[in-house]
From TrEMBL:
Stated name of the protein: Zinc finger family-like protein
Principal subcellular localization: membrane
Localization in the cell: Membrane
Source organism (scientific name): Picea sitchensis
One GO CC annotation: membrane
Amino acid sequence: NHSVQEYGSDLSYERLTQLENVMCVAPAAVVNSLSVNAFVGNKASQELVEPAEICSICQCEYENGDTIMSLPCAHGFHHVCGSKWLLNYSKLCPICKLDVVEQHEG
């Protein structure tokens, strides 16, 4: 992986095309492979590090029947929120910054 800092101010066309190949979001195959469980009462899954009562992405309380996505780091989010985050914004957990793609491949 190459960062903009690595290239400094030498951002030629060739360097920019190399940056294009840097994956910042998670592929759908990785997102679709993550564990999803129904929220019941005050717990979503035994897999979560610290069962929370709100989604850290949308800041809404979990309700019975909500689907909760568990990342490899054991942080959980609404399935829709977690999927949107990973597919559109970042491949990193929004709480601990664990690289979800690296964990999936490793």
